[in-house]
Amino acid sequence: MSVEKLGYEVRLVCRLGRDVQGLDELLKLLREAGWRLSEDKVLEKGSCKMRLKEVSLAGDEAIFHSAGIDSGMLEDFVRVASRGCWYLDIYYHLRGEYAGRAAESLGINLEGLEENIVREVKLSGASLRLSIYPKHRILTASYRVGWSEINRGIIPKVHKKLLEEASKPDEKLSRKMLRLLGWG
Predict the structure, then answer these.
(1) Contact 159, 124 (CB under 8 A)
(2) Which of 33, 43, 132, 178 is 20 to 30 A away from residue 73, measured at CA?
(3) Whole-angstrom Cα distance, residue 155 to residue 153?
(4) Residue 158 near residue 126, CB atoms below 8 Å
(5) Whole-prediction pTM value?
(6) How many domains does the structure of the chain reveal?
(7) Count of Cβ atoms closer than 10 Å to residue 111 Cβ
């Protein structure tokens, strides 16, 4: 699946720890957990694909990205990868309708905005940093993940709020209409 067709991508920046022998050890942990690494640097597990995009020159950061990853596979990847990282930063890059729906699910109306804004939002115990570019209909949400966030189940909650709840506006509208009509 291409990122352009979906309108969003999820990027993970993994800060490799001192006690780990860099990227090789991280990839070993992922392979032991069932992730297969292809020659073109794509990690696969089931139908999920996570591409190793870049590694810093110092070898202390690895950047992965995926288009179309579900919350369960994202949590699985992060749970395994976090054993070889100090922390992970998760970035959601949303465009077009995805950005509009995600902003709406967070209580932000893009239609009324004319200038770019940066805002901090608390969501399910995570501190999300939102960068919103209304003229271009782009929203970037990012947050840091460590063991505490993983153990509290924050990853699926944030993923659901940004992508899954936001991608079903017709269903939300239908529920509201049923409630208004007294059938809910």
Answers:
(1) no
(2) 132
(3) 6
(4) yes
(5) 0.83
(6) 1
(7) 9
